[in-house]
Amino acid sequence: MLATSFHTPKPSSRTSPHLAGDLAIWIFILAELGAFAVFFGAYAFTRAKHVADFNTAQLALNRDAGALNTLLLLTASAFVVRAVQGAQMGSGIRDARWMLGAIACGMAFLIVKGGEYSAAFDAGISLSSSIFHMFYLSLTFFHFMHVILGLVILAVLWNGLRLGRYGVNNMNRLESGAAYWHMVDMVWLILFPLIYVIH
Amino acid sequence: MQYKSQAVAKPYFIAAIGLFIGQIVFGLVMGLQYVIGDFLFPMLPFNVARMVHTNLLIVWLLFGFMGAAYYMVPEESETELYSPKLALALFWIFLVAGAATVLGYLFVPYATLAEMTGNDLLATMGREFLEQPLPTKLGIVVVALAFLFNISMTMLKGRKTAISMVLLLGLWGLAIFFLFSFYNPHNLVKDKYYWWWVVHLWVEGVWELILGALLAFVLIKVTGVDREVIEKWLYVIITLTLVTGIIGTGHHYYWIGAPEYWQWWGSIFSALEPIPFFAMTVFAFNMVNRRRREHPNKAAVLWALGTGVMAFLGAGVWGFLHTLAPVNYYTHGSQITAAHGHMAFYGAYVMVVLTLISYAMPILRGRAANSNKAQVVEMWSFWLMTIAMVFITLFLTAAGILQVWLQRVSDTPMGFMATQDQVALFYWMREWAGVAFFIGLILYVISFFIKGESKAIA
Amino acid sequence: MSGVFTKSMARNIFYGGTVFFFLLFLALTFDTNKELPKRDNSQNLTPQVIAGKKIWETRNCIGCHTLLGEGAYFAPELGNVYPRRGPDFIKAWIQAQPTGTPGRRQMPQFHLSDEELDHLVAFLKYTSEINTANWPPNLEG
Lengths: 199, 458, 141
Fold this sequence. Notes:
The complex is a heterotrimer of chains A (199), B (458) and C (141). Chain A has 199 residues and is an all-alpha fold. Chain A has a single domain (42-197), classed as Four Helix Bundle (Hemerythrin (Met), subunit A) (Up-down Bundle). Chain A contains 6 helices and 1 strand; from the N terminus they run βαααααα. In chain A, helix 3 (63-88) runs antiparallel to helix 6 (172-197). Chain A starts with 17 loop residues before the first strand and ends with a helix. Chain C has 141 residues and is mainly alpha-helical. In chain C, helix 2 (47-58) packs across helix 5 and helix 4 packs across helix 5 (114-128). Classes of the chains: A mainly alpha (199), B mainly alpha (458), C mainly alpha (141). At the B-C interface, helix 1, helix 2, helix 4, helix 7 and helix 8 of B face helix 1, helix 2, strand 2 and strand 3 of C. Strand 1 (18-22) of chain A pairs parallel with strand 1 of chain C, so a sheet runs across the interface.
């Protein structure tokens, strides 16, 4: 699917302000952010009506795990940036390992979050157990699936880097995939304080 | 007509229009039964009329989709249809099966019909829109599979365009999700849950792929805008459609016994469902504004633009009006639902099929476009039907708001029938708007018979 | 601002996004199926109720009435008709149809036996005990 032909930006287009990545991915990112934004808004709105319940339930969350996951995603994003810069400067094949590092961080995120989920399920928490847990599980699981999708994309990009597909004249796919990953990271940066921290 | 096998589309379009007329006649009968309750009773009880009204709609839209596919796919694939004979045979099978089913509804008591047709072997009947007897349901599957075989084989031997891929995906999805009509668990909640996998995943899912493909095809033809541009926007729009529409199914799960988190998931995602419809409107107008040629078929352009606007109003705006769970708590199953259903089906599916017929039929009859006189009449029919539908929707919405107020919001709620009496005036006005719609439809049919000078195919 | 907008990217996002959201839908469906026994009153799905559902279906009741808000909007909601009217009234009402009052909406006579009427009532009772998140807003449906 990814091996088909595509347009590449002409080098001259780099002189004007440049939108990294494909317009199509940006429309998709905007749609996703829209969905998350509405979901966050619904959370804030509902929280205001049930402050006490939410506070109690929030205290039971594993904030250390959440903080660790924040670090992991930030690191992954930094690695992705390194890989993209590497490809831009023509050393994509060598810098593919940064992408691999990002993938490792993403996987670690899934493991940590999976541990949290299994503890929660053992404690009998489900989407239907309380309004807070409905939001907690819905939002984090929705995001969790985005991390999985992001990892699939990073894996494809890693493969492309390794095979030397991306370079200064051929950045569209790489930048688009990277932009998607940064979106996944950014959503977590809102989600983590919103659900784990703010009382 | 570039490929002679495209001609098989013609009987499909004619049958579609014929059944459309039948649908509206039964609609008018029902509209009258809303205010003169015993009209035609017991010869034609309301439930039978409704079954015919909704089933005819579905069947004629399917005829339209199939005709559209037979017309579009050879041209898109740049090859003759795999088997025009199969297409023609399926036409007669589907038409006869459809007619037999409707006659069964009209002349055999439904319980007897169920008994006669093996409903005891596998009970699938008696659920809204899926009332068809078992043999008809099986027939639909067989016809759909043979049709998909024909279309898929045509595409495989020819050029594969984005438009034909999206169309094919939509048609396959249509057939696959219809299979859930055979699943009818005793558990009412599960019955309803999976019933929506046919109904919602059709009209707010795979049918929208078909809609997008048809609209994109006609836009390429009448505007001359680069295929590349139209096809990438097609992809963006249908992405938005499915991203919002699949989870948007949740807006049907609020009050049928499903877990309550669906109120959140359903509200959030279906609140975003107007976005793809809005994008489609903008897209249609944009492409027409950027047109590189003046196509002689002005009527087809009008239908295409109308589809964009009316689909947005009917499916997007009227859907959003009552999709949020706290609102839907009061409006669920009221005349507001009926209002939305009418405008959404007309704006999205009726209009897109008429768009394609309007574009393709003159070509199938050997001319690039109909004579000016015929087109003027067709455009009159466009305005008459569309404005009439706007009024039907407005009157039903008014009836619905009043109904919700009297029956559900009020501190001293009125009973159902007492409420119906209170809103009868709006039902009368809806019926008159329905008559106007019917006149528009007659004008539409007349436009096919108006001669006059027409341009030959370039 | 210059940008790139390619068909292949739009296509890949379409396929990826569709698969993603369909999987999400399946995950929610999985959870729904797990939760349903707490809400769907399936413990009361007796043979009578099942027979009643079939009568409901084969008389095409949904062609005029709504059931939990779904169906036609020509006649009253029946999801809560059991608590609204009670079993005896329901049976007597069905037997008394059509009323024949000029100009009023008419319900057909279905010639149901006493046993069939009991089944239908059992089905309506079962339906009324499904946890519908307090819908409809009041007894009038």
